Fold this protein.
Amino acid sequence: MADESAAPTAGERAGGPAGPVEGQSLAALLDILDLERIEDDIYRGSSPDHGPQRVFGGQVAGQALVAAGRTLPPDRAVHSLHAYFIRPGDPAVPIVYQVDRVRDGRSFTTRRVTAVQHGRAIFTLSASFHTTEPGLSHQVRMPEVPGPEELPTARERLEKALGKVPRFAYWHPIEMRPVGPLSFEVSADPALRTTENLVWIRVDGRLPDDPMLHVCLMTYASDLTLLDTVLLRHGRSFEGISMASLDHAMWFHRPFRADEWLLYAQETPSAEGARGLARGLVYTREGELVCSVVQEGLIRVVGDGD
């Protein structure tokens, strides 16, 4: 089994020190995603100075996708990725990304990326890229929810629920406005228990027009709230829970901007054996379905396992 601390989520960070801390700026996040080229198909990435004690799963997934994108012809856009978190990442040392050019076809391109630290793989990513083609089109309708301007931020909600803003809520530049209850609120009031987790998200700042950058930032942000959905279903907060991402898959359907509001509609079909499954659909404000996400994660009640 993969190390359960392979990719810490927001829930795992909740156990750390609390109170206002210096957060990561958007400029710093963009710099982290701008990998250094070491050699053909080999890149190096760093981690933020202020963040979780282990490398955040969304960060390594986003960096790996950047590495894959650096090896593509200009007419290809990512349409899917599948990733496994293998070992915990050490934020104190760089991560080396090795790209394998699996296939370059007329319509599809496939890349495999391995992230390495201390001589061992910590993460693997397979991604497929596709040229633009005409075809059939349909989508699931977006849920009817209040607009983001009508909702308080997640940080404001956390401060109201806990009397302070936890450390994990400061370290990334992704603005989140939950539509429903937070896990802290549900654990205090079981009547708020829910099977869905609806969150408006956007990067807090204007981005360049590069479509690949917007996809990489959505990949980063997609790991922030998915496993929270399982806790909401069971009326639990992060207290007494060990959580970590195990694997992650995404499908990109239509173009979007990560610096404009996106509704992340998440649900959990199953939890069993200290693992929870969550999936999400990402919509623009206009109701276009732009991305689908599925993740399984470790969700262990502390003391129940070895």
Summary: The chain has a mean pLDDT of 88. The longest helix spans residues 57-69. The longest strand covers residues 289-301.
